[in-house]
Structures are given as C-alpha cells and as structure tokens.
Amino acid sequence: MPYIFTPEQANRLLPEIKRRFNKIIIKRDEIIIIQNELNNILNEFLPFKNLFEKKKKLNEAISSLYKEIEEIEDFGILIKSLDEGLLDFPSQRFNEEVWLCWKVGEEKIKFWHGKNEGFLGRKPLSIKGTYDQDNLDDLK
After folding, report:
1. 139: pLDDT confidence band, cut at 50, 70 and 90?
2. 93 touches 112 (CB < 8 A)
3. In this structure, are strands 86-93 and 111-114 parallel, antiparallel, or unpaired?
4. Distances 114 to 18, 49, 58 between C-alpha atoms, Å
5. Which residue in 20, 26, 102, 122 is deepest, having the highest Cβ count within 10 Å?
6. Mean of the per-residue pLDDT values for the chain?
C-alpha cells in the first residue's frame, strides 16, 4: 500500500523530489539526443560498429532513466507526466483517497484532486473546509 502524505509531509519532501525529477528530465533529454544520433547513423549507412555502440549507449541511458523513475515512485509518488512535469502524492481528504498535485514551476504543493480527476480537476488546498488538515498555514 502506498504511503499517504499530508500536505506538510509532501512539501517537506518536495525539494528532494524536485532534485530527482530534474535528473529524470535531463536523462530524458539525453535519450532524445542519443536516439537522434542513432537515426543519423542509420540514415548515413555507417558501419554496424557505430550503430551498436550508439544503441548500447541508448539502452544504458534508458535503463538509467527507469531507475531514476523507480526511485521517485519508491517514495510512493506517482509521476503523471514527464512532458508536463506533473507529480501526484497519495493523500486522504476526510475519508476519500485523493492526490496532492504538483507541477514543475510551483514552489509548493498547493492543490489536490480526486483519484479519477486529472490536472483540470485541481482544487486549492487553502480553501477552508476542502481539506481536513489541522495546519494549512505552511501552504500560503
């Protein structure tokens, strides 16, 4: 069962998660570059040696990317979108399982949405009565 985060717990962990997520984005961008280089090798009819060396580099980069993703998800955090920079932290609002939602560029986690809602269903945590946490002052 995944960990259930309060907004305060998620925000305390966020700096480490941001650092790790940035590494994932860098690795993803490296994979795109390597894939383009591999395509160029194929299009230029270079020797097989070049092809297999580049393919090995691509495989290593992909493995490294998945390892980084697994490390974030081992915290109990769901990566919703690399391209949009969306992460969800499992939480509970009253008796309902919900997601605390963070997007790259946001300083803190200030939004939540239902399990079956996405980014467009985000609601601010700071609206009185929408979240059953004792101390929402840290979110302002």
Report:
1. very low
2. yes
3. unpaired
4. 23, 51, 37
5. 102
6. 89
**Structure confidence by residue, pLDDT tens digits, 16-25:** 999 999 999 9
Residues in the chain: 140
Residue 135 main-chain phi, psi, to 5 deg: -130, 100
CA distance 105 to 72: 18
Q: Which two tokens stand for residue 81?
A: 């979108």
Which residues make beta-bridge pairs with 90?
A: 99
Please report, as a single letter, which amino acid is at residue 40. Answer: N
Using the predicted structure, report yes or no on whether residue 38 has a pLDDT greater than 50: yes
Residue 2 has a pLDDT of 60
Residue ranges of domains in the chain: 1-140
Query: CA-CA distance, 112 to 44, in Å (whole number)?
Result: 50
Supply the angle between the helices 7-43 and 48-74 in degrees, to the nearest 10: 170
Specify the residue for token string 């069962």.
Answer: 1
Give strand pairing partners of 114: 98
